[in-house]
Amino acid sequence: LRGLPQPRGIELALPSDVREFPAQSSVNKDFDMYLGKAISMFFKVLKEGDGGADHAPRIEADVPSFSGSPDQAVQVLGLLQKEGRLVDFLMEDISGHGDDDIGAAVRDIHSGCRKVLDKHFKLRRIMTESEGSTVTIAEDFDASAVELGGNVSGTAPFKGELVHAGWYADEVDLPTVPEGADTKVVAPAQVTV
């Protein structure tokens, strides 16, 4: 792929599972949750394709929406670009490249983006059960932490297959943006003189 780094061998290692789910105290909990969902969905679609996507009705729940400043979202996007060249990859037209080329490029992107997550976020799984196992969702479940899909009717408790265990950001430690910096710059243009 044009301009993307060459692949290196990488082992995929997930953070250890934690069973507790503490009350969310971060001011940016909505941003953290949606960032995790977006990254997870990106890699799922990249790996498996749309697969006809689950267009089943979703349970309507009181899920908070992100209404804060986009500055931190742009900052995280900038970090993912700097270390993993994620934006370059996503903006590249890959329709003309073979699966082997794309897979090779994704190894370096994965490594760089993983460095960002490890350095700036303390992540853990929301549910500790294995994906594919049957789980019971309690009556008082947190709709921002558990998304129900498929044939949802009636009231909780619900029993179903765990499709994705979810991610929770226990800590977020983003670098300080220099005063006066344009917070909309994802990655500066680079010029060699």
Element layout with pairings:
Elements lengths: L28 H20 L22 H14 L1 H6 L7 H22 E5 L8 E4 L20 E4 L5 E6 L21
Antiparallel strand pairs: 1-4, 2-3
Helix pairs in contact: 2-4
What does this structure look like?
The protein has 193 residues and is an alpha+beta fold. It has helices at 29-48, 71-84, 86-91, 99-120; strands at 121-125, 134-137, 158-161, 167-172. Helix 2 packs across helix 4 (99-120). The radius of gyration is 19 Å and the shape is globular. The two termini are 26 Å apart.
Keywords summarizing the entry:
193 residues; two-stranded antiparallel ribbon; 32% helix; 4 helices; 4 strands; alpha+beta
Please give a quick description of this structure.
This protein has 193 residues and is α+β, with helices and mostly antiparallel strands.
What structural class do helix, strand and pairing data support?
alpha+beta
Strand content: 5-15%
Helix content: 25-40%
Write out the strand line-up for the largest beta sheet, numbering strands in chain order: 1-4
Query: What radius of gyration results from the CA coordinates?
Result: 19 Å
Coarse morphology: globular
- The ordered H/E elements are HHHHEEEE
Terminal residue distance: 26 Å
- Give the biggest sheet: 2 strands, antiparallel
Low-pLDDT residue intervals, each spanning 5 or more residues? 1-28
**Overall pLDDT, averaged?**
77
What's the helix count? 4
Number of strands: 4
